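Final report, section 2: Outcomes. Of the targets proposed, F-box protein 33 is the one most frequently requested by collaborating groups, and we therefore present its record in full.
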Amino acid sequence: MGFAEELLEHSSIILDLLGRNCSRMLESLHIASIKEDSENYGIIDLSASQFLTFTALRHLSVDYDHMSNELLSAFSSGCKNKLETLVVNVHGIDSEHEKVTNYSWIAVRKNCPKLEVTVNLIHSYDGVQGLLDILQPALPLTCFRQMFCTDLNPSAINYFSSHYKDTLRSIYIIDGLNDGFPIPYFSHMEEDTFVMLAWRCTKLEEFTLLGYEILDDDIMAIARLRGEQLKKFDIPLSCIATLDEDEETPARYAYVDDDFVLSVSNSLQWPWYPKDDSELPLAVFDAQADAELAYIDILLSDQQQK
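The predicted structure is given below as tokens.
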């Protein structure tokens, strides 16, 4: 429905109408929404049984509010549905929300072996904190996006490295700077969280990190590990930190020399440059800017391709 709030408010009625008239033909259904205020919004009443009628459905996007074991059972063994893509938008997380079990994901993957899952955290501090409760080992995560959530969950990123090394292809994380400086994140591992991700996730093709501090050495490590397989590697110049020798805290930001750029480019085997500030969305710098403009086209592209 293209994130049109006027239509999404009537999702239940529209689903019933589609079920009566298009149940054997409908291949794509997109009822996921965007909530800029993830702590204060109404949840549309949808029943998992409403999805059972769509026997040709291959592409689905929904809010996490409607994810349940019952919903996944509509695409599990014995069902005609052979779901290929599932996009889940996470906003707030209700404390009473049913946890989707690993068994449910195992069952749906048996029936839908081509299934690829995208998880989008949108203005969702709850989603960042509760990400490990959302994830399950059998969830076939292909793409993870996090838009303006004010924090990272390194433990969840490490979970990606352990459980999605054969499925994960794309990481996209964007946030606003903190008083003009990139946001630091802290990993409890000896190696950087994203370097470990690049090492273990051998199918990784796209990596975007905007608004968070990343060391120049870690950028080079990611480029070497994934090489020419990495087709997109977006890092802002203003977020690149450099350590002085024998120092543990960044000595400077936003400075790289030609040798650094050449080294990364040689590893990737294509001409790479860090992103200039002029290439970044305004919301990275201005907390009052419309953040939705930074990601709406990305989210819509999921629907346009299916």
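The CA atoms of residues 157 and 270 lie 27 Å apart.
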